[in-house]
Amino acid sequence: DFIKFMKKDRQGLDSHVLRFFARLDTNRPIDMDRCFIISFFLSDDTISVFEPEKRNSGIVHGKFIERSKIANIGGKYYSAEDLFVGAVVNFRSHQFVITDADEYAMTYAEKHRDD
């Protein structure tokens, strides 16, 4: 949707990307300490997941899930309302627990609480 893209893509230095910090919801000891950054792009409702480098972990860092629209278990695509601190989300058979959010995501959530 071009109008949505122009409205929510970028205004000055404000990029309209909600960033959340998450961990894998797993019992595997090797995966319990892995941290991820989930980015939700408001312009087209796409999601990407990135794993920052963790020295000497033996796990390849970088892009974990390519930017794309991701459907939840019910078949509907994830929206900004589905992502909040404490939420458990399932992206391509990987279950994440959102542990924190950046300042822009928190401000956006407060402003759009009633939407």
The ordered H/E elements are: HEEEEEEH
Query: What overall form do the CA principal axes indicate?
Result: globular
The proportion of residues in beta strands is 25-35%
Largest sheet composition: 6 strands, antiparallel
Radius of gyration: 15 Å
Q: How many helices in DSSP terms? A: 2
Helix content: 10-25%
Distance between the termini: 19 Å
Unreliable stretches covering 5 or more consecutive residues: none
How are the elements arranged and paired?
Elements: H1 2-8, E1 17-24, E2 35-41, E3 46-51, E4 62-68, E5 88-91, E6 94-101, H2 103-111
Antiparallel strand pairs: 1-2, 1-6, 2-3, 3-4, 5-6
Task: Describe this structure as you would to a colleague.
The chain has about 120 residues and is α+β, with helices and mostly antiparallel strands. Helices cover about 15% and strands about 35% of the residues. The chain contains two helices and six strands; from the N terminus they run αββββββα. It has helices spanning about 1-10, 105-110, and strands spanning about 15-25, 35-40, 45-50, 60-70, 90, 95-100. It has a six-stranded antiparallel sheet. The longest helix is centred in the C-terminal third of the chain and has 9 residues, at about 105-110. It is globular, with a radius of gyration of 15 Å. The model has no long low-confidence stretch (mean pLDDT about 85).
